[in-house]
Structure formats: structure tokens, C-alpha cells
Amino acid sequence: MQHAHGIAYTTAGPDGAPAIVLSNSLGTTLDMWLPQLDALAQRYRVVRYDTRGHGASLAPSGECTLDVLGRDVLAVLDALNIERAHFCGISMGGLTGQWLGVHAAERIGKLIVANTAARIGSFEGWHERAALVRARGMDEVAAGAAGRWFTADFMAREPDVAARLTDQLRGTPADGYAACCDALSSADLREEIGQIAAPMLVIAGRYDPVTSVDDARFIAERVPGARTVTLDASHLSNIEAADAFTAAVLAFLA
Fold first, then answer.
1. Which of 206-224 are b and which e, b meaning 16 or more Cβ less than 10 Å from the residue's Cβ?
2. What tens digit of pLDDT does each residue of 169-197 get?
3. DSSP state, 58?
């Protein structure tokens, strides 16, 4: 594990290959991308990182905003001397990807955003969740997470996977999680995403209760040339529909 400006990251795959950055969802770590890692690392230099306040990355020292999360990605690219990379982010990571597409277009090749929206949730909802975890820790948020992340069929089929992700959420530092809730509370790119020029793939989960197929369609209708793929999954589609997710990403990058 390496660090750049407090952000923990790791790489896999050939050093000289085109790079792709993978960005995790709220309450997870870079390990969430293990289902995609081997396939991607055969062709790409895969950069996985823990979003600020998660995993081995430090919590922000001041206010956390989407700008902060986006600049963290640029700091990792700079540390690796990568001028330009593809980017794949899920949920919160998908918002980070949209920010990069708007504000750092010269650093991004192809852009994949999954189970996300140009505006996720509401200011009030994120503010309440941040206050909850700051006051009472992560247990209450973790208790309901699996039902948001996975379908009932998947949880019955892969209970160990759902339990592992839930335990990881429970172990997320409350201050780091709350800081990212603060960032999401003010993150609204609905009026800006039309500026994105990068080739974009928007992946949606058919059963996602958090970021819907309509949210994906909203993005794709506003970003010139964007295409969409809908998978039979809930919110963490790269885990629930891992093979289909990986295949869609590889086909888009090819």
C-alpha cells in the first residue's frame, strides 16, 4: 500500500499499460473491486484507492467536498506520474468520476460511472446521516446496509459476501464516513455534466433503491454520446453482477 496526500492506493498490472482508476462507494474500501481486479490487470495498470476517510486513507482535516474527493484522485495520479487514466467509480465514486469529467477532462480517458446520479439523495438526508454516525457510531447505518446494497436473492445466495461488506461498513471510521456524507450533501452536478466530453458508460442496477435506472438515464441524456447498461443487480452491481459488470467495462474500454 502506498500513500499520496493521505490517500492510500495500490496498483496492479503492467506498468506500461494504460491506467484505470477504480473508486469505491461510501462505506467500502478498495477491496470492493476484487471481483474485477484480475481481468482488468491483464490489460491495464489498475489503480485502486481508498476514498478519503475510508480504509487506510486519512479523514479530511477540514471541510470535505466533492472537490476534495476529486482532487484526491489527481494527487494519486500525480504520485504515479500518470498523465491520463480511465476511471471507473461506483455510487460516491461515480460522482467523483463526473466531477473529474467536468473539472479535469485532460486527465481522464474513458469514464465509467455505476450506480450513481448527478445528485444522490438530499442535503437533509446526508446531514442527518452524518449527525447520526457522529453521535452514535456506525451500527445503525450498517444494520440496514445489506438491504440497500444487494437484492434478497443475492443475500440468500451469498450471505458471506453480504456479511463481509456489512462488517467492513461497521468498521469504517465514523468521522471519515460522516465527512463523505457532508461531501455528498452538497454534491450536485446536474447543471454541469453536459460539459463532460469523455466517452462515458453509465451502469445501472435494475433493482437499485438508492440510485435508479432513471438516475442513470438522466446522466446519459445530458452527456454527449454516453451509453447505458442495466444489470440485474441492486446498488453494488460490481459485486452482485460481477461477471456482467466486468464484461461491460472491458467491452467499453476496448
1. ebbebbbeebbebbbebbe
2. 999 999 999 999 999 999 999 999 999 99
3. P
Mean pLDDT across the stretch 236-251? 98
Q: At 29, which CATH number? A: 3.40.50.1820
C-beta separation of 240 from 234 below 8 A: yes
Is residue 46 in a domain?
yes
Q: Cβ(188)–Cβ(118) under 8 Å?
A: yes
Domain count, the chain: 1
Strands 19-23 and 85-90: parallel
pLDDT category of residue 252 using cuts at 50, 70 and 90? very high
Instruction: Yes or no: say if 45 and 109 are a contact pair by the CB < 8 Å rule.
Output: no
Residue 62: predicted pLDDT: 87
Distance CA(198)–CA(110), nearest Å, equals: 6
Q: Report CA-CA distances (Å) from 123 to 53, 85, 126, 224.
A: 20, 31, 5, 28
pTM (two decimals): 0.97
149, HSE (Cβ side, Cα atoms, 13 Å): 26
CB atoms within 10 A of CB 161: 19
Structural domain of residue 56, as residue ranges? 2-120+188-253
Residue 98 within a domain: yes
